[in-house]
């Protein structure tokens, strides 16, 4: 570390002529380094320069991305401009045509706070993924959202044109392929036990359903057996989704049961937008799950057939096993296992509006009746007539009398991502726990643990073009720690704050907060200053807005004479700072910062002002992108300059991104010369996307009865515990698995890891999206 007192005593700041001479020398040295750098780059530019690469512009890193933006990238990576897909506006994927596959790993339960809390433990994630951006999920089922994401209308040259007549349209239709063309009785549409097991319905004797209650069903039903429509609403509790309302209608459409149910566990979210359930509705309710289970057992005759839309979810919420069910989402089948929403089927087939926006949540009686009528209509009409009547409005086929070479007259294929890839002969797959994923079951592989998921993925001799892998162990672990996210966020924010703080002093008597601010402003934007007065001396706690500010203050101002009195600048000493040196080393070597440099411009007279502690009238010097590029372009090609100025404020500091790390190292090796040009520089430490995460994270502070916040300043430090050690161990294990999975990917695969984030009554905690294209070894 250079002596900071040299800043105040350097003769180069007093001798303009000498400064010019040394500056020229610096530029000559920089040119030499740049020439060497270009030569080295030329030797290895052959393969790497032509390999696909993904990056996010610095200004876009300040904004979080949603699932829609992520799918934009996946669509472009898979189909490119030849498929009519535009390059996403928020990122850049170079050499898209050379992308050989897509892999998305979804880690449930983890947030960006977890990543930076356990930053040192996540070596694989830190080093293998060069792009990192804040992620905020726009739906609960990200895997399903990826497979079912809609694409813009594509050029029909991508698809072989089917025969344009009714016979051809019916021949390969999923409904006809399953049920044939003949009209049959209801027993033809009752799910077999094998189908129920495959589609995760509660089945007696199957693992996971040991505590479920069974109805008194006969072994076989007939075509005259009674149909009953069923629908349930759920809320989110500490233990997951639990029943809050159940409705049953008989075969005539009469509602025979409509009960509100009090969940056993504490409710985190009533899901009112979907369920229509509010706290006021459940407040007087005493009916339990056990009560409605008994009512249903008494209500349903032995040969009853239950009808519902994705009725497996309702039975799981009821913890009920019933042998004979018809699922309308599987009657009106779509290509590749996709399912129509009940709202769409009701509107198209029954010509009835349900689940309308003006209604607060769903009406389960209405939904149960709609599902029942859809099943009755299908049975009465028969599969062929159902398909013929609704071929265009439901399945998107337009039948023309004559063949036409015009693409517009051809049957329009589904424009969902997974469908398009499979039509093009590219395989897709989902690996993870059992869940309702919008994908054909033949493309899903279910496992009970993350270890099994990883081992199965590694065993594959040929990887699918699009694979979505879901790790769920953290989600199960964190469900037992309700306040974990809020406490973790507070802890991490406190640690980040400590990393931006320095203690300075002693100062001469009467030295004011304003003078301290002016003094430390030369190292970066200063946030809060707290003056510390003792009976003898004056000290100050200075909090910078950026990690680099504190680093430069230690490097530049420690040991400086302030009005004849040496000043000491040091870090705070507390538990959170014990591994600070390791953290700073890791941040310095972070893949996000390999070619980034932090620079601040000083007024030419600042050194003399600091030396004499005279009145600092102006320590600022305005920067522009042009001047920064001109100055630092001598060390290497400057790819981008970010000037994070606030409206009406001077721009004094900049984040400089070089085209390669050699440019940054050349500038750092010339720091003495740059200081003579009134620049202070250091390696970038703050990840570029961090401000967007800090701005988005909104923990909710719990208020005690006396009106005081339940958390005090010590809450932030409560994580150094056995739970912390357990979490750190799990994070290391996760990091190892992600590293093994990445290594098993074929070269030129776009790899994406998504930490989903977390939203609850305790606040919103954003996730993190990491991206990299795997290069050949």
TrEMBL record:
Q: Name one GO cellular component term.
A: nucleus
Keywords attached to this entry? Exonuclease, Hydrolase, Nuclease, RNA-binding
The record's annotation in Gene3D superfamilies points to:
3.30.70.330, Ribonuclease H-like superfamily/Ribonuclease H
What GO molecular-function term can you cite, just one? exonuclease activity
Superkingdom as given in the UniProt entry: Eukaryota
- Which Pfam family, giving just one, matches this sequence? RNase_T
Instruction: List the SMART domains.
Output: EXOIII, RRM
Q: Basic and acidic residues bias: where?
A: 26-37
Q: List every stretch annotated Disordered.
A: 1-50
Ranges of Low complexity composition bias in the record: 1-13
Q: Does the keyword Transferase apply?
A: no
Q: Do you know which InterPro entries this protein is assigned to?
A: Nucleotide-bd_a/b_plait_sf, RBD_domain_sf, REX1-like_exo, REXO1/3/4-like, Ribonucl_H, RNaseH-like_sf, RNaseH_sf, RRM_dom
Positions of the RRM domain: 500-574
* Protein name from the UniProt record: RNA exonuclease 5
> Could you tell me which species this protein originates from?
Amphiprion percula (Orange clownfish)
């Amino acid at each position: 570390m250079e002596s900071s007192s040299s800043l105040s005593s350097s003769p180069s700041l007093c001798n303009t002529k000498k400064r010019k001479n040394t500056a020229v020398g610096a530029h000559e040295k920089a040119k030499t380094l740049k020439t060497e750098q270009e030569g080295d780059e030329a030797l290895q530019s052959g393969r790497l320069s032509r390999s696909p690469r993904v990056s996010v512009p610095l200004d876009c890193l300040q904004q979080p991305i949603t699932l829609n933006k992520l799918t934009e990238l996946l669509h472009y990576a898979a189909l490119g401009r030849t498929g009519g897909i535009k390059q996403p506006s928020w990122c850049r994927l170079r050499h898209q045509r050379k992308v050989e596959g897509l892999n998305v790993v979804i880690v449930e339960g983890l947030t960006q706070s977890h990543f930076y809390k356990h930053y040192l433990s996540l070596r694989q994630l830190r080093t293998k993924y060069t792009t990192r951006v804040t992620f905020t999920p726009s739906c609960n089922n990200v895997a399903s959202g990826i497979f079912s994401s809609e694409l813009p209308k594509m050029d029909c040259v991508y698809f072989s044109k089917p025969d344009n007549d009714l016979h051809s349209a019916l021949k390969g239709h999923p409904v006809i392929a399953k049920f044939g063309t003949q009209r049959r009785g209801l027993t033809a549409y009752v799910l077999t036990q094998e189908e129920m097991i495959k589609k995760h319905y509660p089945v007696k004797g199957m693992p996971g359903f040991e505590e479920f209650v069974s109805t008194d069903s006969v072994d076989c039903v007939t075509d005259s057996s009674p149909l009953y429509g069923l629908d349930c609403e759920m809320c989110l509790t500490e233990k997951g989704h639990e029943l809050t309302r159940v409705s049953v209608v008989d075969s005539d459409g009469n509602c025979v049961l409509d009960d509100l149910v009090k969940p056993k566990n504490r409710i985190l979210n009533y899901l009112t937008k979907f369920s229509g359930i509010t706290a006021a509705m459940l407040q007087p309710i005493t009916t339990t799950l056990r009560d409605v289970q008994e009512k249903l057992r008494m209500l349903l005759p032995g040969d009853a057939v239950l009808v519902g839309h994705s009725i497996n979810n309702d039975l799981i919420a009821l913890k009920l096993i019933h042998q004979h069910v018809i699922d309308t989402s599987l009657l009106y089948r779509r290509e590749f296992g996709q399912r129509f929403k009940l709202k769409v089927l009701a509107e198209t087939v029954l010509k009835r509006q349900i689940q309308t926006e003006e209604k607060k949540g769903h009406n389960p009686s209405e939904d149960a009746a709609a599902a029942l009528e859809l099943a009755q209509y299908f049975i009465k009409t028969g599969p062929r007539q159902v398909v013929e009547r609704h071929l265009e409005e439901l399945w998107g086929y337009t039948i023309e009398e004559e063949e036409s070479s015009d693409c517009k007259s051809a049957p329009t294929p589904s424009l969902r991502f997974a469908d398009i890839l499979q039509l093009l002969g590219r395989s897709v797959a989902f690996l993870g726990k059992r869940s309702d994923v919008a994908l054909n079951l033949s493309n899903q592989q279910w496992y009970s643990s993350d270890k099994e998921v990883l081992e199965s993925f590694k065993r594959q001799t040929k990887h699918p073009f699009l694979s979505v892998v879901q790790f769920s162990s953290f989600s199960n672990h964190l469900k037992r720690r309700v306040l974990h996210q809020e406490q973790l966020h507070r802890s991490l924010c406190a640690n980040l704050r400590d990393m931006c703080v320095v203690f300075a002093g002693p100062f001469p008597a009467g030295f004011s907060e304003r003078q301290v601010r002016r003094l430390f402003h030369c190292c970066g934007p200063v946030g809060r200053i707290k003056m510390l007065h003792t009976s003898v001396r004056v000290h100050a706690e200075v909090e910078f807005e950026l990690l680099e500010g504190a680093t430069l203050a230690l490097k530049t101002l420690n040991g400086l004479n302030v009005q004849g009195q040496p000043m000491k600048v040091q870090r705070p000493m507390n538990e959170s700072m014990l591994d600070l040196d390791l953290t700073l080393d890791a941040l310095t070597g972070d893949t996000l910062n390999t070619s980034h440099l932090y620079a601040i411009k000083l007024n030419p007279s600042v050194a003399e002002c600091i030396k004499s502690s005279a009145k600092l009238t102006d320590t600022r010097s305005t920067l522009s992108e042009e001047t920064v590029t001109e100055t630092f372009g001598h060390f290497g090609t400057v790819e981008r300059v970010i000037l994070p100025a606030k409206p009406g404020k001077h721009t004094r500091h900049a984040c400089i991104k070089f085209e390669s790390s050699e440019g940054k190292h050349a500038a750092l090796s010339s720091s003495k010369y740059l200081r003579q040009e009134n620049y202070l520089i250091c390696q970038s430490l703050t990840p570029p996307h961090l401000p967007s995460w800090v701005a988005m994270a909104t923990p909710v502070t719990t208020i005690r009865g006396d009106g005081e916040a339940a958390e005090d300043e010590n809450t932030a430090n409560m994580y150094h515990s056995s739970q912390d050690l357990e979490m750190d161990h799990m994070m290391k294990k996760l990091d190892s698995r992600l590293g093994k999975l990445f290594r098993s990917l074929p070269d030129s695969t776009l790899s994406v890891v998504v930490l989903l984030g977390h939203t609850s009554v305790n606040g919103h905690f954003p996730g993190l999206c990491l991206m990299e294209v795997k290069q050949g070894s």
